[in-house]
Amino acid sequence: FGPFGEHAVNASWIAVQELEKLGLRDGVELHVYEVPVEYQTVQRLIPALWKKHSPQLVVHVGVSGMATTVTLEKCGHNVGYKGLDNCRFCPGSQCCVEGGPECIDSIIDMDVVCRRVSALGLDVTVTISKDAGRY
């Protein structure tokens, strides 16, 4: 996601740009997009990108002013959105996707990912969260 609130630069966007420079292994296509922090743009753009690329894996990254580690999210919520986006808009329903599930759980075992990254001995702390927050 792009900048929002007190974050003039979204650190996750900087990290994704670095990953794009490095690339992934041969045969793996990496598509990188900076998504504006705007409910209505996200509702249009994300489905269009899924349709365009038919991805096998999508990783959304964001930033938290409270996080002190790289945080792997186990689920994303669809309800309880009360904050205004960069356009000063908030859905009246407080839902991202009308009629969508309350929570979408990752099919990736984040506990295993966390253990594997930690075992690499990198100078990065990785933790797990069950609450990806809301804008």
List the main descriptive attributes of the protein structure presented here.
two-stranded parallel ribbon, two-stranded antiparallel sheet, 27% helix, globular, Aminopeptidase
What does this structure look like?
By secondary structure, the chain is of the alpha+beta class. It has one domain: Aminopeptidase (3-Layer(aba) Sandwich), CATH 3.40.630.20. The protein has 3 helices and 4 strands, in the order ααβββαβ. The protein has helices spanning 11-22, 39-53, 110-119, and strands at residues 70-73, 75-77, 103-105, 126-129. The strands form 2 sheets. The protein has a two-stranded parallel ribbon. Strands 2-3 form a two-stranded antiparallel ribbon. The longest helix is centred in the middle third of the chain and has 15 residues, at 39-53. It starts with 10 loop residues before the first helix and ends in a 6-residue tail after the last strand.
Short summary of the structure?
With 135 residues, the chain is α+β, with helices and mostly antiparallel strands.
SSE order and pairing:
Layout: H1 11-22, H2 39-53, E1 70-73, E2 75-77, E3 103-105, H3 110-119, E4 126-129
Parallel strand pairs: 1-4
Antiparallel strand pairs: 2-3
Active site: 73
GO biological process, one term: proteolysis
Keywords: Cytoplasm, Hydrolase, Protease, Thiol protease
